[in-house]
């Protein structure tokens, strides 16, 4: 069941061995996609786009199928949450968007963002970044610095989702000094942690494999297994957090994720609030 006020709170290798620069191309990635949803013909690589989310939204409105993946080497207007800019220099990082047409209600959309976070944290942990943790709702953090972010956008028919676009940005190669000064302090790259450059295409293929695994389970079993996996990688539980909300803010202890995926925060007066959207900072 949906909470009554949800509408006001809706989310917010095979034969080919790639070199670092060609690992995102259609030729390489298509040779790696063996799943049921992210099919080779649904993979679209661009050298430059304004935003992979913007492109995926356009394709979605034009009827492209579930499993369409849009990747860009560089974005000129990468979008972050709350209208922020996502710095997207060429040749270094991963910027991509998935198009999904899940048979779920609008109020369940944030569960798919959490699912994407789970697949992403499992991907980076599997590639050696063992310290990576999830910060609700969608950031991957390492030692208090941001490694990756997720931006979900959607269109609905009444209470049902028509389509959802899940955009993912991962700081992979180079160092955070490639970002604007105000972000550099708060960001970190996989290469900085692992002291080596990574092949972006391999990261992407592994993410798509894990996302598909969890997505098919979600469609069969619902949110419970996703919630369990997500909690196992959470940076928040038991920690004091500050939640920035459109109508003000709150400080309290992050207690749990509820069965719908909302964050439960207990304030010092004992009141437990169900946080549906907002920015969370660890104190
Ligand atoms: C955040 O603010 O943490 C979310 C950042 C999401 C960035 C990704 S990069 C690929 C996709 N295209 C965009 O314009 N944004 C998302």
Mind explaining what this structure looks like?
Helix 3 (109-126) crosses helix 7. This protein is globular. It is an alpha+beta fold and 283 residues long. The strands form 2 sheets. It has a 7-stranded mixed β-sheet with strand order 1-2-3-7-6-5-4, with helices on both faces. Strands 11-10-9-8-12 form a 5-stranded antiparallel β-sheet, with no helix packed on it. The two termini are 33 Å apart. The longest helix is centred in the C-terminal third of the chain and has 22 residues, at 200-221. Helices cover 27% and strands 28% of the residues. Strand 1, helix 2 (52-61) and strand 2 form a beta-alpha-beta unit. Mean pLDDT is 91; it is low at 3-16. The chain contains 7 helices and 12 strands. Biotin is lined by residues 51-53, 75, 78-81, 84, 86, 95-97, 139, 149-151, 167-169.
Please sum up the structure shown.
This protein is an alpha+beta fold and 283 residues long. The chain has 7 helices and 12 strands.
* DSSP strand count: 12
Span between N and C termini? 33 Å
**What is the strand arrangement across the widest sheet?**
1-2-3-7-6-5-4
Say what oligomer this is: single chain
């Amino acid at each position: 069941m949906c909470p009554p006020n949800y509408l006001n709170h809706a989310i917010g290798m095979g034969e080919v061995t790639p070199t670092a620069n060609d690992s995102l191309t259609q030729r390489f990635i298509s040779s790696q996609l063996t799943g049921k949803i992210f099919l080779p013909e649904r993979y679209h690589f661009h050298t430059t786009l304004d935003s992979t989310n913007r492109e995926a939204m356009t394709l979605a409105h034009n009827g492209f199928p579930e499993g369409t993946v849009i990747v860009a080497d560089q974005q000129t207007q990468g979008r972050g949450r709350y209208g922020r800019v996502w710095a997207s220099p060429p040749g270094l990082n991963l910027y991509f968007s998935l198009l999904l047409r899940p048979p779920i209600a609008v109020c369940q959309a944030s569960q798919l963002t959490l699912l994407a976070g789970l697949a992403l944290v499992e991907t980076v942990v599997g590639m050696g970044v063992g310290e990576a943790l999830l910060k609700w709702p969608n950031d991957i953090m390492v030692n208090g610095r941001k490694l990756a972010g997720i931006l979900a956008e959607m269109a609905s028919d009444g209470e049902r989702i028509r389509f959802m676009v899940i955009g993912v940005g991962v700081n992979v190669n180079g160092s955070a000094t490639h970002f604007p000064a105000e972000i550099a302090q708060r960001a970190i790259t996989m290469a900085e942690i692992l002291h080596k450059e990574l092949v972006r295409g391999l990261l992407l293929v592994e993410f798509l494999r894990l996302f598909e695994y969890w997505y098919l389970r979600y469609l069969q079993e619902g949110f419970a297994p996703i919630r369990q996996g997500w909690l196992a990688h959470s940076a928040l539980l038991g920690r004091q957090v500050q939640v920035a909300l459109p109508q003000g803010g709150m400080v309290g202890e992050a207690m749990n994720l509820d069965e719908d995926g909302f964050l439960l925060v207990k304030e010092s007066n004992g009141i437990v609030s169900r946080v549906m959207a907002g920015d969370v900072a660890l104190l």
